[in-house]
Amino acid sequence: MNPPVTAATLAGAKPGSPSHDTDTLTLAFDDNRLLSVVCGGHDENLALIEHRLGLDITPRGNRLALRGPNHSREQARDVLAALYARARRGLEIARGDVEGAIRMREAADAREAGSNAIRTRRKVVTPRTPNQGKYVEAIRANELVFGTGPAGTGKTYLAVACAAEALMNGDIDRIVLSRPAVEAGERLGFLPGDMKEKVDPYLRPLYDALFDMMPAALVTKGIAENQIEIAPLAFMRGRTLSSAFIILDEAQNTTPLQMKMFLTRLGEGSRMVVTGDPSQVDLPTGVTSGLADAVATLKGVDGVAVVPFGNADIVRHPLVGRIVAAYDRKAAKPKK
Q: In the structure, what pLDDT confidence band is assigned to residue 63 with cuts at 50, 70 and 90?
């Protein structure tokens, strides 16, 4: 077990491993007076760091216990090191100084991970393929982006990461995640439970991606305060979504009318990402997929980008890529 990080180590800005368990890093300081300057009145500076970096900071005498995801702890450690060094030089620490230290640390992450890095509360997400990089660039540059292609290519995961980053940076006020409740052989009316219990299984992939980007407490709080909304497509009708990051997943299972309804929910200050796999349509035979229809209809429209993914972009287990390729070969063979 490693000893607590000391102020001398802080001066070098590269402390070692957590001192107590896998979720906690303890920093020890040699001057309580300077530490109080770093913490701010009523620990307001610590509260700001907690909010921006997604972790908990507990003062204990001359120590600060940082509890949260590893990346958040590392960021907070370096921010506190910079602020402590500033206090040592006899300088005051205002809110702007704390914000500046956080931005400097985030900029260092960006330089290390590349310009397409997505910084969320829990981790820095980086594109793993050229198409994923183009996808992130398209999301940042356009109000509406379609990501199409096979499962496992990161379409939904990267979109949720971009949404979490935008919320963290204050670029939008809320995240809205949606899916059509269409699955093979199931109908909502035949499933047990109330409406939430009926639709939650359809929305589980969106929950999973969100919890991977943000601490569970922030996700739960965001949902409770309507800052994060996860709902089936049918609940979108009649609404205008302003200052929001809106994601429609499994969009191949929408009809053209449903897709038009969803796309026209886009309000001022919002951006929208629509994802789906055209090869996995669960609509009744003969019903046109709204995803394919929208991609064709909106081709060339200003502010709209389409990023197609292929088997080379699959980043799940290597077997997934081979499975998709095998099904593609089977579909390409002429039927006897």
A: very high
